[in-house]
Structure formats: structure tokens, C-alpha cells
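fwd from M.: "can u put these together and see what the complex looks like"

so here's what she sent:
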Amino acid sequence: MNAALGWTGELLALVAGVVGMGVLAVGLLRHRPDLIKSGKTYAWLMLLGAVIAVGALEHALLTHDFRIAYVADNNSRQTPLLFSITGLWSALAGSLLLWAAVLAGYVAAMAWRFRRRAEDELVGWATLVSLGVAVFFFALLVGPANPFVHVTGPVPSNGLGPNSLLQDNVLVAVHPPLLYLGFVGFTVPFSFAVASLITGRLGEGWQVATRRWTLFAWGCLTLGILLGAWWSYQVLGWGGFWGWDPVENAAVLPWLTATAYLHSVLVQERRGLLRVWNLSLVIATFCLTILGTFLTRSGVVASVHAFSDSTIGPELLGLFGVVVALGVGLIAWRGDRLRAPGTIDAPLSREGAFLVNNLLFVLLAFVILLGTLFPLLYEAFSGQQVTVGAPFFATMTMPIAICLLVLMGIGPALPWRKATAGTLRHRLLLPAWFGGAVVLVLVAAGVRGLVPLLAFGLGGMAAAANVRQLVLAARAAHRHGVGWWRGFLGRANGGMVVHLGVVVIAIGLTAATAYAHRTQLELRPGQSATFDGQRLTYLGMRQVQTPARSATELDVAVAGHGVLKPAVSSFGNDQDPVGTPALSSTPFRDVYLTVDALPTAKNGDLVANGPVTIGVTIQPLVAWLWVGGFMLVVGSVLALLPGRRRRPTDPTSFQPGAGPGGRRLVAEEAEAPDASPVPVTSRAGPSDDRAASGRRPWGLGWLGR
Amino acid sequence: MTSAAGLASSEVPRRSLRRPAFERAAWIVLAVAVAVALVVGWHRPSGSPRAQEIATLERDIKCPSCDDLSVAVSTAPTAIAVRHTIVRRIDEGQTPTEVEQYLISRYGTAILLDPPTSGPTLLVWVLPGLAGVVAAGALGGFLWRRSRAAAVAVEADDEALVRAALAAMAGAAGNGRTHGSPETGRPVEPGP
């Protein structure tokens, strides 16, 4: 029954998608508004099909329906409820179903959000493109990666259960869905970008329409990546949170291009520049999500995250190729319409800083992509295996990361169009002194090492520069009588909070990687040892037995941290034991213990009072990674909320008639992020469909028409 | 006190804080202080040469049974075995290169976490720098061309246009002032 229902749901979604694409295509090509408008119905039908399929698979997992091969492989009668639910994304076919369902949800949400513009050809094409992507994934589900296939042979009495690593931490319930919300969410801006290229409406309309969608997807991806790091820290047992694993890299690649886009889109909205660049970034972000899925789910790379092998590699690679060709082709086709109406006046300006920011992010993405793909390409050409690992990535990305920290300290203080040395000297003085003070205090306190000191100092400067912008924005809001807290709302101000989170993460990351200490201690029960100023006493071992897990736990007393219980566990029917690390966090340092070796007699039995080998990792400031992640989320939410909207004609910084030159700069207001000087002449033409999206242009150029 | 007067008075101390000479001096002091601190803090003491050689090797050698971990961080039995091998061979007087050569002969080139900086794998080391130079050059060229082409002056009739539009907005706000902010009704210039 479950299987039949699941098949039905998948087929319904697939058929709805194909029919919807056909109807929309006919309506768009023949200019039939009634047909374009009906396209959204198919989005809802597709969502219905996806919900039925997901419901059927969840029901099968919860009722342990081992007739379905996917359930037999990824569930057992002993699997706890939570990990039965998460079984949906424990292996390839189920996680593809989740992917497709999330995409169907996004398409339906688009249909709902733009229901009043349903006849608009831009929305029609965007719906068509997103339906097309969804159809691809539902076709995979109906074809080569169907989670509802029956077991061959007799129905087993019990299943295998999920991979051991996937059933000892609740983060498994959060990290993959968030990552998917992020990955799949970039389909929305991608669809609108393609729609704008097809319709030739290449202004800022599509970006304004998808601003919050992009930011939402970006926020989910950011949180998903950070929770993934947290998960691997707590589960994988090597004391690290980022291994430059191909799959981790695959998740961070679209994040980098999306982050670049979130910055450069401001330049286009404000100045009308960088149109081709922004379209390329959006299309590249989407391509990288597909490439990431290919790397994760095709088994071409060895990775801790590639939980199953599959046969859908060629299909994903095919989609990747089609999307790249489509993007390049469309941009080339529309090339003549993509000329920017304005120019960049001076390199030392806000838009200049955004350009450098974009260059750095794209360079970072290139380096990581190169390092990730190089072993594959090298093996293909030379037949020899080669590893590109953490030292390469650390060496290559560190200078770029330092440059980004510098830029984050300077960028927010730069005005649009043109900055003078005097302005910068004034605005950056306090932030620079704060960063300098951080370096001085740390050196005086005995902290050594050039790169960590640079990172801490530049982080301090960036934090101060961003706090300064927030203070200015809050004061400006207060002066306008709307409450100082309004100075924290809106894209620019929320962005400052996000920057603060990034600084906190950068500092935690630097401290944890530069000043980590590891050792292995061999201790008998009752013995103590001191490592890196931390006293540890091994108290003894215990056997722990629950239906889902059998484990050998050690009790280790860590001075100031209580008793930690690292273990070696076996889950379900999986006889291969995995280590279960134990950790204790304080704001200053984390103590992280693993069981590296248990004492065994010749016959393989445990010797309860024998010496055990305990792995100890002590890292400073790790906890701040997660605090920074929380700040990123808060900042993203603030950026999603509407900020103080400055009317384009408000004389905030440019005031005709005041003073001899006919203009005067009111220092504080001119600097407030939401109220920067308005370029008077730079915008040659207004964008085509701002009116359709109900927004006013920022510039004043439209007054002159 | 009218809001206009408040605005004007709040600007007076700000101007006095913006003394360029004071700011220049503050920047110079900061630069010198940070430079001295960095010179002092530059060097990071790191054990004996032997310990350093071992640490570098352990960081750069992949754990044979893991996907992407070095033997320094992995706790797998194979990693521990390699660590013992490294320590033993260094203590026998081998150079780090000789130890690396031995491990490569035993496990293949993939045992190195970093690809070798010689032969075809040099490419992966050179390309990022090359891309950085090309990108910086492209950006520099773009900005240079753009800023040369950007000499657009604000003409008098442009400003007249803006002034007329602002006056129209202020008139629509209905408070009769010539240059009132329509949002708050606050006068933005402290009259004659």
C-alpha cells in the first residue's frame, strides 16, 4: 500500500509538472494570459503529489514496512522514532525525494506569492523554469532512484537500520533539511534570472522580486553548513569541524557565489551596473548546487558524507551541462541589452569595495573547486591517484580570507560613488584603533603567531566598523522618531549583524585551528594525567545497553568540566562499532575526548581494568563558532524585515539651497547605511519592471524623463 | 529649542573632532604600535627541530584508511601506525623527505595530503595564484577604464530639476516650507 501510494504521488507530481510546463509554454509563446495564469494550478498539483510521496515513505519507515527495499536498508525495528523519521534522508533515493518535495514546495510558494502577477510573462517563464527543474528530479525518482522499489526475494523480518553515524545525534534531523532548503531555494532566483533573460526584461525587477527568496535560501544554507560542522564535530571523533571533505566543499561553493551575489546585487539595484555579472553569479550558484549534488550523490569522490552509491551520476552531470550551456547561451544572446547604463566613478567607493569583495569570493570558490575536482581530473588524465587535502586548502584560502576581513572593516564605511582619503581617515580611525588595541593586548598577553594576530586584529577592526554603522543607523532612526531599534532592521543593517557573526566565526576558527592541542593518553583506572594544563582522571568503564545501541563507555573526570563519557558504540544490527566522542564546552576552551583503544585479551574480550587509550583534543574558543552562527541567523532575519525606507527624494545628504555650493553633507545621515547619498545623474534609464513590482527606483534619474 | 537648532548645535563638536592633524597623528601612532606588536608577536616558539619535523610530517601525511584526514588528527589504527613509523624513522636519522619517499613507495602518492609541487601536480598550486593575478588585473583594468570614462559633471539644469522636484514634494507635504522633509515635516535648513 505504501509503495503504491508513493508511486502515485511521484507520478502525479511528474505528470503535473510536465503538463504545467506544456501549458505554460503554449501560453507564453502564443501570448495567452489565461493559459499562463493556469500554470500555477500545476504547481499546487505537483506539491500535492510530492506530499503524498513523502507521506507514504514516512509511513513506510514508521511502520517498518520492509517490503520496500529502501526501508529495509535504512530502518530496523530497533531504530528510535526520531531516526525512523530522519530515515527519509538517510540514503540517496529518500534524500532525492526530500529534495524534489522541497522544490515542489518552493514552486508552489512562488505560485502563491506571485499570484497577483500570474499573467506576467516574467513570472510565467520563472514558473516554467522551476517546474522544469522539478520535473527532472521527479523523473529521477520515478526512474533510476525510486525509493519505493520492492525488495527482491522474501521480505526480511528486520531491516539493516540507518548508517551508524546517522543515528547518534539529533542534528541529523536538522542539518540535511536546512541544507536542502538552501540548495533548492536557489532555484527561485535562478528561474527568475533565466526568465528575465528570455523575456528581455533585464532590469532590476527580477532581483527585487526574488530578494527575500535569495536571502532565505542563503540563510538556510549558511545555517545548514554551520550545523553540519557542529554535527561532524560532535560525531566524527577527530575533534575537527571542517575537513575540506569534497562534500563539505560542495556545500560551501554555492554559498560563496551566493554571498558574492548578495553583495553585488546592491550595486545593480543602486547603480544599474554589473548586470551580466549578477546573472552569471545566480546561474553559477544554481549550477554549483547541481554539481554539489553530483559530487555528493554519485560516488565519484570518497567522502564521509557519501552515504550510498548510486547510478544517477550521468543524469546530474547532464543537467549540469544543460544549465551551463543554457546560461551561457542566454547571456550571449542578450548581450547587447545587458550594457550597464552607468559607470563606476572611482575605485575607492562602496561599489568598488563590492567589486573587490566579489573578486575575492569568486577566487575563493575557484580555489576550492579546483582543489575538490583536481584529484578526479588528475586521475582521469594520468591514471594516478593524488590527494588534495587540508594543508592545500588552508594555505590557499588563508590569504583570501585575510583580504576579506580587511574589506569587511573598510567596506561599510565607504560611501557610494566616491570616497576621499579624509573621509576614510575619519571614519576608520576608531575601528582601526580598536583592531590595533586587540593586537596590542594579545601580544602583551603572550599570544604569538603572525596569521592569528592579523586575523584577530582585523576581526576586531571589522567588528568595530560594523558596530559603528549599526550605531549610526540606530541614531538616525531615533532622530527620525521611529525608535532606535529600527536601525537594526533592513538589508544593510541586518547585513552588519551578519558581518559581526562572521567576525565571531573567523576568530573562533582561527583560535581553534591555530592553538589546538592533541594527544593520546594511556591510562589505567584511577590514573591521572595533565595535558595542556588540563587534569584528567580515568575512573573506569561501563557497558551501556539500549535497544538501539550497545556501547562501552569510559568515565573520565576532567578538572573543571565534570565527568565526560566517551564511548565506542554499536548501533542496531550494525556490528561495526563507531566511536562516540564526549566533549565539554566553555567560552574559553573545549575539551574533547575519544576512545582510541580499549584493552582486549587474546581472545578478543574486554579487560575491564586494563589500560585504555584516550584521545584528548583541547581547542580554545570553539564554542564561538556556534555563537557566530546564531548571530548570522539573527542578522539574516533582520535583513529580511523591511528597514527604514528612505524616499528617493528625501534630502538626506544632498540639499540644494543649503550653503554656498548649493549642497551640504550632514555627516551622520550621509553615513547611515540606509540613507546614503543618492546619485543624481548616474542612472541613465529606469528599470523596465519596477512599476510591476511596486517599488520605487532609488535614483532620481526618472524625474527627468 | 527647535529641531533645526538641535541639528545645528549637534554639528559643532563633530567638526572640532574632525581635526585632520589630530587624526593623522592618531593613524601614525597606531601604525607604529601595531608594527612593533606584530614584530614582537611574529615568531611562534615551536619546540625542537625534531618535534617540528614530526609535526609537519604528521600534518601532511594522510591517514591510509581515512578519506581526508591527516595522521595528526585521525585516531584510526592505521594512522597511529604511520605516526609510529614517522617518529621511528626520524629518530633513526632520516630526513623528512626520506620519510616521505618511504611512505610514498609504500602507499602511493595519494598518501600525501598535499599534491607534490613538482611535475604535473604543480598546476594545482600555480593556478590559484594565476587566477588571482588575472582577476586583479581584469578588475584594475575595468575600474581604470570606468573611472576615466566617468567624468560626467552635474550640470546646472540637472540641479534645477532636482530642486524643482524637491519643492514639488515639499509643497505636496503641505507644510508650506520650501525645503521641508516630506517624511517628518522637519525643516532641514536652519533659515537665515
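replying to her w this: Helices of chain B lie at 3-17, 20-42, 49-60, 77-91, 96-107, 122-149, 156-173.
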